[in-house]
Fold this protein.
Amino acid sequence: QVQLVESGGGLVQAGGSLRLSCAASGRTFSNYDMGWFRQAPGKEREFAAAISWSGGSTYYADSVKGRFTSSRDNAKNTVYLQMNSLRPEDTAVYYCAARRRATIWDFVRSKPYDDRQYDYWGPGTQVTVSS
């Protein structure tokens, strides 16, 4: 089992920044790729970002590319999502998720954007961006 807890959400004005953290406990953190997903009111959950077990590979949804950056510190069992130039449409509950690290070399081909691959999820943290 892997337990995940997100933090760092809040209310911010458009154009502002937030950094989300996701602390993991339980199994060896470096055995897991990590994903960030979000769900806005009345919408389905969608992929935002993912980072490989080593931190060497990342992948982003087009909607956040160039504005969001994911990183991780395996020594601290923590993954981060730095969100800059926030927009009202970024308002959502943000979830971190863990999957066993991909066995294929190409991170994108391993479909890190597919939420069905993730076995463990945090409870989420609310991000609200005001216009």
The longest strand covers residues 18-26.
